[in-house]
Amino acid sequence: xxxxxxxxxxxxxxxxxxxxxxxxxxxxxxxxxxxxxxxxxxxxxxxxxxxxxxxxxxxxxxxxxxxxxxxxxxxxxxxxxxxxxxxxxxxxxxxxxxxxxxxxxxxxxxxxxxxxxxxxxxxxxxxxxxxxxxxxxxxxxxxxxxxxxxxxxxxxxxxxxxxxxxxxxxxxxxxxxxxxxxxxxxxxxxxxxxxxxxxxxxxxxxxxxxxxxxxxxxxxxxxxxxxxxxxxxx
Length: 234
Ligand SMILES: Nc1ncnc2c1ncn2[C@@H]1O[C@H](COP(=O)(O)OP(=O)(O)OP(=O)(O)O)[C@@H](O)[C@H]1O
Ligand SMILES: [Mg+2]
Prior knowledge:
Elements: E1 2-11, E2 14-24, E3 29-33, H1 40-47, E4 54-62, E5 65-66, H2 72-77, E6 80-83, H3 95-100, H4 113-119, H5 121-125, H6 136-148, E7 154-158, H7 166-181, E8 185-190, H8 193-197, E9 202-207, E10 210-216, H9 217-222
Parallel strand pairs: 3-8, 3-9, 6-7, 7-8
Antiparallel strand pairs: 1-2, 1-4, 4-5, 9-10
The structure holds adenosine-5'-triphosphate and magnesium ion (MG).
GO molecular function, one term: ATP hydrolysis activity
GO biological process, one term: L-amino acid transport
Family: Belongs to the ABC transporter superfamily.
């Protein structure tokens, strides 16, 4: 279980997260909603212990162990994976290389490149294409596939459907829901409420660095009028 408590994060002297408390349980798909610039990516970066922002207060615990103070690879070693906003692929590496640089083809346990290709047949067809030759949707599939190759227990997905065509968004929703059912915890940053509701069990809403609303997806499906003021209506 991922437990975030009273986290305050800064860029320089600018306070961006002001006391964030939330959690993700095993097998739970949790959506983090909020408009542009509210601090969603800053929270994801705080969890991954990336160089910026600086977390100056609070705790981020994974199965009871404090993550703050670790290096990003230490976080990854604890089976926390990141699908970063904007995909961050290597332009000159092939699809297969992106996957096998994390786990060589000789390893047959857990996620393998072939299993990723079974899940995303489109990527299988593009396995020799380089990062800069892929479409937006293919890049996103590869970013998800690459994150899975560490055999994570929780995946942080930062707006994976950003910029994708509706059919690709639906495909991704199906994959996220299926991954959740396998016991993987997923923290899904999303701007679109309806896209989030298609897959998630619980919802948090962030507004200027604070969680201003928490509800089960079932509650939100029944009545989301109190949330709408915090969201972009699409
Ligand atoms: N490296 C940085 N240095 C200084 N300020 C930053 C930095 N990155 C983000 N910020 C600021 O922190 C605030 C939160 O940004 P963040 O990227 O976390 O928002 P977000 O909710 O992920 O937005 P979006 O939905 O647009 O991705 C914004 O005001 C942003 O300008
Ligand atoms: Mg962001």
